[in-house]
Automatic annotation (TrEMBL):
PANTHER family: METALLOPROTEASE, PROCESSING PROTEASE. It comes from the Bacteria. SUPFAM superfamilies: LuxS/MPP-like metallohydrolase (SSF63411). Residues 186-358 form the Peptidase M16 C-terminal domain. This is Peptidase M16. Gene3D superfamilies: Metalloenzyme, LuxS/M16 peptidase-like. InterPro entries: Metalloenz_LuxS/M16, MPP/UQCRC_Complex, Pept_M16_N, Peptidase_M16_C.
Amino acid sequence: MLDRTTQPEVKAMENIDIAVPRRKVMPNGIPLHVIEAGTQDVVRLDILIGAGKWQQTQLLQALFANRMLREGTKRFTSAQIAEKLDYYGSWLELSSSMEYSYITLYSLNKYFASTLEIVESMLKEPVFPEKELKTVVDTNKQQFLVNSTKVDYMAQKSFASSIFGNQHPCGRFASAEDYDCITSSCLKEFYDQYYHSGNCNIYIAGKVTDEIQKLVEYTFGNQSWGFADRKISLKPYSINTTPDRRVFTEHSTAMQSSIKMGKVMIQRTHPDYYKMRVLMTIFGGYFGSRLMSNIREDKGYTYGISAGIASYPDAGVFLVSTEAANEYVEDIVKEVYHEMEILQNQLVPESELNMVRNYMLGDMCRSYEGPFSLSDAWIFIQTSHLSDSYFAESMKAVQSVTTQELMALAQKYFNKEKMIEVIAGKAL
């Protein structure tokens, strides 16, 4: 008989077995990463192009060059693309980041050849039609105008500019006028420079059959396409952090204020990063964190507050973020520094550290349990310029970090005097 009065023994996780992609370089030089996992007859194709905000010469250029791929090609109109994808039950996502633009396709295996034909046309022969461009730009501009009235967007923009400077790609933000400057010709110029087989990576995950892999290789990897001889390099930029400790943006009718606090921090490649993740989780990285327990549960100042290390191509950024009623702003800032000081001067209890260990290890397992999440994980490794040992090193750090090491890290990196406080809201 099962004794339900006795709690099951909690066993520490020893290792996580993460499937490594099969990798090959196709005849035209494009790296192909194949992740065979899952039992359902469905696959996900990810095409990565090194063409993000960092590479653009005009604000919004990377965003709209990527977004317009589905709005018309030499073979298909935007309506035909939408109808065909809908007919085959496929799902297409287009997105861009600081360094990359992404084309992501979810498709049933039996229709993969048909949907791949559409993606091939989108990638190799878009036409950037003026009529569709105007509609897309106008829609995005209206959304931008709405977002510009929100305190969280205002604070996010001000924080990034304060950390990086407004000449750095991470600190530059578009205005309404920049939307009006987007033309078909400027997008075509960006496309010609970056969308080619010499600047591309392909991932395919799911129940990948030999036939599906051969289709991908034949479609994208058999011959060079685009202006593949164009050399790609990332231009270096200087980080010019503001000397101001407090940056305030007025929103006279705001009922709440958005608070962003932080500073330039170590990157993922730094030796301290792995164990620093544990400290940041304790500080503000999960629902039971110090900041949540104090500022949400005990004081009731906010519904949620978080802290973490945001990663950018040339820097990490320590960031604390929350929204609260205007009258609680100063109290929240005070309590954030108070929790930082506690971690600098008091050892984290072993019971709390063990709880965070279990949380982080469990989160790792959930993140790598399916074929598409595995694909996300390996794409993350590539786009973050990390080695394959990142997952093992992360797990080792979580398992081995000591309370003394956490205190030393807090003393080293929780520099109150270097923190920038960015507030967007109503002045009191």
